[in-house]
Design brief:
The chain is of the alpha+beta class. It has one domain. 31% of the residues lie in helices and 16% in strands. Strands 1-2 form a two-stranded parallel sheet. β1, α2 and β2 form a beta-alpha-beta unit. It starts with 8 loop residues before the first helix and ends in a 9-residue tail after the last helix. The mean pLDDT is 76.
Length: 87
């Protein structure tokens, strides 16, 4: 019986996330968003800068919860094709 903290065979054979262009994601940051058109772009940019400064391979997941403002329209054009660390 395997200890729970040991990686499973599936985990060991998992391919890197080629969609993101990242070999190994060290951290996933979930950024909740509801009507944040005034702040969402700044939050994403500051988070990207922080990840680079810390030399951490990460992704940012913006979780929109039905915004009625332009939050989604602001994020998507800035990150076409989901740049390497923004989904």
């Amino acid at each position: 019986m395997k200890h729970q903290s040991e990686p499973s065979e599936n985990d060991q054979n998992r391919k890197p996330d080629k969609f993101l262009g990242i070999d190994e994601i060290e951290v996933s940051i979930v950024m909740p968003c509801l009507n944040e058109e005034a702040t969402v772009a700044t939050c994403i940019e500051k988070t990207c800068v922080a990840l680079k400064q810390m030399d951490v391979k990460g992704e940012i997941i913006v979780a929109d919860n039905g915004s009625t403002d332009a939050s989604v329209e602001i994020v998507l054009p800035q990150y076409p094709g989901h740049q390497e660390n923004v989904k």
